[in-house]
Amino acid sequence: MTAIFFAAGEADAAPERVRFNIAAKPYPESLIDLALQADISLLGASACGGGLAGGIKGAYTVEEALSQLLARAPCAWRVVGSRSVQIRPADPSVAAQTTSPPVAVSEVLVTATKRVQSTERLAVAVSVISAEQLAATGAADPGETSGQLAGVLTTNLGPSRDKLILRGLSDGAFTGRSRSTVGTYLDNTPINYNAPDPDLRLVDVERIEVVRGPQGALYGGGSLSGIYRIVTRKPDLLHASAQVSGSRSWTQDGAPSGDVEGYANLPLFDGAAGLRISAYQESQGGYLDDINLRRDNVDRTRRYGGRVSMSFQPNDIWTVDLSGTVQHLKSEDTHYTNRASGLQRASRVAEPHGSSIALVAATVRGTWGWGELVSSTGFVRHTYSSLYDASAVVDLFTANGSERAVYSDTTRTEMLVQDLVLTSRGAGPFQWLAGLYGSDTSETSPATLMARGPVGPLAAVYRDERRDRIFELAAYGEAALRVSPGWTVALGGRAFKISGKTTSDVVSERFAPRSFVRRADFAGVSPKVSLQWETASGNLVYAVISEGYRAGGINSGGARPLATARETFAPDRLRNYELGAKLHAFDGRLVAHSALFYDVWKNIQTDQFRPSGIPYTANVGDARVAGLETELAYSWDMGLTLQANALVSQTRIIRANPDYAPELTRGLPGAPGLSGGVLATYQRRVFGDLALRVVGEANYVGRSRVTFDPALSPEMGGYVRAKLSVGLSGRRRAAEVFITNPANALSDTFAYGNPFSFSQVRQVTPQRPRTMGVTFSTAF
User: Fold this and answer.
1) Of 3.40.109.10, 3.55.50.30, 3.30.460.10, 3.30.1640.10, which CATH number belongs to 1-90?
2) pTM
3) What are the tens digits of pLDDT across the range 436-458?
């Protein structure tokens, strides 16, 4: 195990002195004694190796004790929170090639709650995937991490086109005007609004943090079911390092794939600043053949991008982090086929998709003895576009006898976000935070349908020029009071105001043009209350009530205007009742996180399609969701670590919107009643500094339906994803071989692909066939 956590007390990594009595013993054991005696959280004890530490005895501050205890150790330390210390190898290149097993589900410090805290001390269901686990499993994007976390699922329309789903709280499989139910963040900057997940490649990443349940009190409207947060590695101000890795793989009945990625870190100005640069390029080979277009492996995807980060630390109080990130992705065709077509399809035209995202961010952090101030500023530009074969509905848009039509839509979203939060520090019984948030979002989304008559080229027969501007202001806060030893009660909330303006200009060949400018304002409060009990051994039981909220909006588009009742959609709100436990046993070898939750979701927003294939957003009614999620981890001395996760849930519509579907009684679409996964890692030294690592991973996604509409709701899911890898790693070099989908299953992962033929043809998205590959990496 690589981290140790203990119940919070009055001692802290503050200037007060603690009386230590630590005997000479190996570094990890000495650090365990230090954490016990100082009553702090300590992460990464194994980074110091198994060398012998000298003993210390007397009254010291925690900083003085660490400095003396680790004076000759091959590791470094730093205080990262009021009661938290992090240990890392002194040589970062060694850390890059670490052979430590994946960190157990609880053994990390997180910042997703706006302060540095141990996951074991949070009254919320939070999971973390460490950088070591990402490397061990080869998870390169959010979709590949989903099976390692309880209740985390994604749709499978294609790269940068998917939706993240937490706890079965699904508003449908499609993306449109409604805001995402899961907020995706890169460090402190949100990177999605109503867009699909941008599918950032997880390069040079410190960890993934997932917080389940509505997080409206801290994060606002885009967190109805939780937060998915990517935490990047920051520049090291003291050590230069670099790493390069690459892989090559071969897919049965498909084209080969390959990627290369790397980073370089350079200290500047005698340790007062640092520069870190990472970059990557990837090609995912296609595996679908189009018999009409006479092309093989049509669904190839290319992705490339990078990140530049700079950190400045002029003194012990202030730190400034600057970063710029960019990614471009292009899929040459979609990934669905027709039922019983195997890996073949018969299309009239290719259906490519492209996505580009760029963001710049600045974080200024000031730390004093009594508090910490963090200012986060970010600007995001996300552009994505798709082309569909719309021939199946061309008669609804033109009467010129066309037999072929294509629909093109492009969305460009620009977000400017400012978040300012002040938090308390220290180990007193009263803790608090207060924050101010503001965002300015601008979205342009032109859509065009072009048709070809009996003669001549494609010509536009329908166009919708839509523009949206959304402003959000919020004030939020949270206060926690330790009312008695082990018992803490917390109360928080967020007051917000959201103002939107929508402009639409529709031109259609068959109907008169129309335009409108409309405004909508929404305001409210998202509260949260929690009660937690920590035992002396570090176990925790908690209860929480929290809420999430999404503002309403305005529909536009379509050759014909929508009915008056569907011109707008109302806000929806989700209230979560949760009882959870975080337990340890067998000297910390077994870690268990479980949560029982019951959610009341009122006025659910969902993105759907009209018979013409044009999207709109509707409120379908209310739902009740009940579930149990569990994550377990166990480590053996022989080098084996086993992790398992599962979600069992039941969803039920209790009040259907009669204007949408009065007979609606089934549960939420895209929400299987059962999902789960297993991850096993075995490693041992074979000789010298060379280590063997074997990793096996499998996850199951149960059956669900793709839409709310009972008349048009094909089933999907009921499949297993699996991966096996074997590798050797040394001090600076590593190599592995891997295989995915070893059974070569072609299960239907997503019963959707094209909105214009969805109601006429049974669409399926098969798994990528059996793929074998090799990976090499070297550190400098």
Assistant:
1) 3.55.50.30
2) 0.89
3) 999 999 999 999 999 987 777 88
